[in-house]
Design goal:
Strand content: 35-45%
Distance between the termini: 46 Å
Structural class: alpha+beta
Largest sheet: 8 strands, mixed
CATH architecture: Roll
CATH topology: 2,3-Dihydroxybiphenyl 1,2-Dioxygenase, domain 1
Strand order of the largest sheet: 2-3-4-1-13-16-15-14
CATH superfamily: 2,3-Dihydroxybiphenyl 1,2-Dioxygenase, domain 1
Shape: globular
Radius of gyration: 18 Å
Bound molecules: zinc ion
Number of helices: 6
């Protein structure tokens, strides 16, 4: 039975795309690794941020709708996304965010020091000090010391109404193991140790998706075959899955886990260098083949990013 190596990406919603790019590339120092459109609505960007090559597990993506209303957080959704930074980096990040006028708060969770703050759309974020990050080189944007640069996504916190049901998907389908509890929160860690999913019990009160909401969380499958096996085990457990969709940079299957969070299983292949060189990632607007004929019309509608 295949297991997931951990998170592949997290996808969220934003309002102003230009503000989104400025925050994630300049304030947080991630690399814009792909500039494309929502494959279901090419009038909206799909922006991917990550490390130098867009390694699976480093990717945070956004659909920025310029006039989107702010989301209302509820149950059945991810309520915080955490990034890993090297041990000792939080002091520098705390100073950097304060200098930029961004409110941040220090916390401890499961013995890890973390700095909690929000992006311009009030999406909740955390920087978490981790131990060995030698396999995650990260990406140091101008003005950010390589020693403190974000390395990858370290996990998400899910507000769940069916803790046991969500936990079962993490352990039985993706191979996560329970790593302890703190207060009423339970932590599950991927088999590779790459990330942690924290489950926070929440009454089944629905929020409303909007700017600042996380739309879905994607887990890695090494191959189409592994993805199919995971999908099969979900179906055997009476959880419906979508057909496979080609997202150009990975292939995806989606499902709602028992608490209502939208989960995706995304293949590692082919990755972000499939349509532009690593040195040029994120510099040109990339369109899937079905929209290439409409390129000039699409470019005329998309707002400038810089
Ligand atoms: Zn996705």
């Amino acid at each position: 039975m295949p297991v997931s190596q951990g998170l592949h990406h997290v996808t969220a919603m934003a309002a102003d795309p230009r503000r989104n790019v400025a925050f994630y590339t300049r304030t947080l120092g991630l690399r814009l690794v792909k500039k494309t459109v929502n494959f279901d609505d090419p009038s909206v960007y799909h922006l991917y941020y990550g490390d130098e090559t867009g390694t699976a597990g480093s990717i945070l993506t956004f659909f920025p709708w310029p006039h989107a209303a702010r989301g209302i957080k509820g149950s059945g959704e991810p309520v915080e996304t955490a990034f890993l930074v090297p041990a000792g980096a939080l002091d520098a990040w705390e100073r950097r965010l304060a200098d930029l006028g961004i409110e941040a708060r220090r916390e401890q969770r499961f013995g890890q020091a973390r700095l909690v703050f929000a992006d311009p759309d009030d999406m909740r974020l955390a920087l978490v000090e981790a131990g060995d990050l030698s396999d995650s080189p990260g990406w140091a944007a101008d003005g950010i010391d390589a020693e403190i640069a974000i390395r990858r996504i370290g996990g998400v916190t899910l507000a769940v109404s069916d803790m046991a049901g969500t936990a079962r998907v993490l352990t039985d389908v993706f191979g996560y193991s329970e790593a302890g509890s703190e207060g009423d929160m339970k932590r599950f860690v991927s088999v590779s140790g790459s990330d942690a999913i924290d489950l926070r019990p929440s009454p089944p009160v629905r929020g409303r998706m909007g700017a600042g909401s996380v739309h879905h969380v994607a887990f890695r499958a090494a191959t189409d075959g592994e993805q199919a096996a995971m999908a099969q085990s979900l179906v055997a457990g009476r959880i419906g899955v979508t057909e496979q969709k080609d997202r150009n940079y990975f292939r995806s299957v989606y499902f709602r886990e028992p608490s209502g969070v939208l989960f995706e299983i995304a293949t590692d292949e082919p990755g972000f260098a499939v349509d532009e060189a690593v040195e040029e990632l994120g510099t040109a607007l990339k369109l899937p083949a079905q929209y290439e004929a409409q390129r000039s019309r699409i470019e005329a509608v998309l707002p400038p990013l810089a």
